[in-house]
């Protein structure tokens, strides 16, 4: 039987908010709220060219401050900020589809790419989804030309499930995931 998902309370930083650790020194994740919108917007704008060459993330870079804040408060999504020594470097969102199935959305600021930070951040969110949200499958949709992102999910154990005109669908079977 389908159970309705109930959004959890998203708390501001330092007020009991979920904090996820990683194996990288100083790299942590925490739930973002509308109070983080200005920091997200600043990082997005600084990374505009990095985020949009494949035609994705254009909606993200075109948002104003109010739209960034509203996006961080969506009830079906848990947006984690990725922080390196307290500096926002990217985001990973866990999107609830139902019955233990989740979607994954992520991006990293231009200045931080190529360091393995997003691999570690996504691994932390997978552990969280498995241990705290009873995840059975996590999906990621990626544009075929975004080879770096395709390699990232492949390294984490996602497998190509479908090829569509606009994107590739990768799926992770959480029960068989190897950290």
Features:
Aminopeptidase, alpha+beta, 28% helix
Which structural class best describes the helix and strand composition? alpha+beta
The termini sit apart by: 30 Å
CATH-scheme architecture: 3-Layer(aba) Sandwich
CATH superfamily: Gcn5-related N-acetyltransferase (GNAT)
Q: Work out the count of structural domains.
A: 1
Shape descriptor reads globular
Radius of gyration: 15 Å
Task: Please tell me about this protein's structure.
The protein is of the alpha+beta class and 179 residues long. It has one domain (19-176): Gcn5-related N-acetyltransferase (GNAT) (Aminopeptidase). The protein is 28% helix and 30% strand. The chain contains 6 helices and 8 strands; from the N terminus they run ββααααβββαβαββ. It has an 8-stranded mixed β-sheet, sandwiched between helices. Helix 1 crosses helix 4 (65-71). The longest helix has 16 residues, at 117-132.
Quick rundown:
By secondary structure, this protein is α+β, with helices and mostly antiparallel strands. The chain is built from six helices and eight strands. It has a single domain, classed as Aminopeptidase (3-Layer(aba) Sandwich), CATH 3.40.630.
Write the layout of secondary structure elements.
Blueprint: E1 19-21, E2 27-31, H1 37-46, H2 48-51, H3 58-62, H4 65-71, E3 77-84, E4 87-98, E5 101-108, H5 117-132, E6 137-142, H6 147-155, E7 159-163, E8 168-173
Helix pairs in contact: 1-4
